[in-house]
Amino acid sequence: MAVTKAPEDAYTAEPFVPEGAGLAALRKAAADCRGCPLHENATQTVFGAGNAHARVMLVGEQPGDQEDRQGKPFVGPAGKLLDKALAEAGIDPGDAYVTNAVKHFKFTQAEPRKRRIHKAPSLREMTACGPWLAAELAVVEPELIVVLGATAGKALLGSSFRVGEVRGTVLEREIHGRPERLVPTVHPSSVLRAQDEDRRAAYEGLVADLKVAARALG
User: Fold this and answer.
1) pLDDT digits over 19-69, tens only?
2) Among 28, 103, 208, 212, which one is most buried in terms of CB atoms within 10 A?
3) Which residues is 181 bridged to in the sheet?
4) pLDDT tens-digit profile of 80-94?
5) Sheet holding 178-185, edge to edge
6) CA 80 remoteness from chain centre
7) For 166-204, how does the pLDDT look when each residue is reduced to its tens digit (9 = 90+)?
8) Residues 184, 163 contacting (CB under 8 angstroms)
9) Strand partners, 183
């Protein structure tokens, strides 16, 4: 008997999120999330990681290829660049909590053994995954959220978000029922994608934005 999939407008992680759970229980529950179809092709759920009492939470888009294989966020090239930029800006990466708006790797693949190419999650998929991010925010209670890139910004601040308009500024918004301060910036992967002659400037722009976050933390 064929399994009937939920219609796209019914995607939600809500039934899978245990109420009032700590990070360990949330991480365990997220491994079994079937709130949208992205779990079908991904290797595993990639939940957030880091200091459970972090003053700063960094929110990216979704796991990449390396994160999907290892089951941890920001362990690939973009994560290494982010750690370097954080340290240069005066934020200890070890004191942060890092996560993604979407917890499964979305990709296209021409053939089974070919390279898996990142594909941006849809707004519906981001919304479906929102309950996990809300639960992480409720447990960690960060003083500041660093928004890494347009997808994370749309997930947190709505579909009209444009990173270029607000990067490097401190925003105050209600997010999942909590008043939050946020500093948007580019995703570190965009720095890696920049042409060689532009990459230094792109990296320095990321560090400058993270320095705004460091100052906001005081």
Assistant:
1) 999 999 999 999 999 999 999 999 999 999 999 999 999 999 999 999 999
2) 103
3) 172
4) 999 999 999 999 999
5) 49-50, 97-100, 56-60, 144-148, 178-185, 171-175
6) 15
7) 999 999 999 999 999 999 999 999 999 999 889 999 999
8) yes
9) 146
Cα 110 from Cα 85, distance rounded (Å): 34
Q: Two tokens at 79?
A: 């994560």
94, 98, 206: which is closest to 152 by C-alpha?
A: 98
Residue 4 has a pLDDT of: 45
The shares of helix, strand and coil residues in the chain, as percent rounded to the nearest 5, are 45, 15, 40
Give, for 213, the enclosing helix (H) or strand (E).
Answer: helix 196-217
% of residues, the chain, pLDDT over 90 = 89
Q: Retrieve residue 33's tokens.
A: 């999330």
Residue type, 176: H
For tokens 């990449």, what's the residue? 64
Per-residue DSSP letters for 137-156? Answer: HHHH--SEEEEESHHHHHHH
Separation CA 117–CA 133 (nearest Å) = 24
Average confidence score pLDDT of the chain: 94
Sign of CA dihedral 62, 23, 127, 12: positive
Residue 148 has pLDDT above 70, yes or no: yes
Distance CA 69, CA 64 (A): 9
Contact 188, 79 (CB under 8 A): yes
Give the predicted TM-score (pTM) of the model: 0.93
**Residues 6 or more apart whose Cβ sits within 8 Å of residue 159:** 123
Report yes or no: 122 and 159 within 8 Å, Cβ to Cβ: no
Handedness of CA 149, 155, 159, 160 (dihedral sign): negative
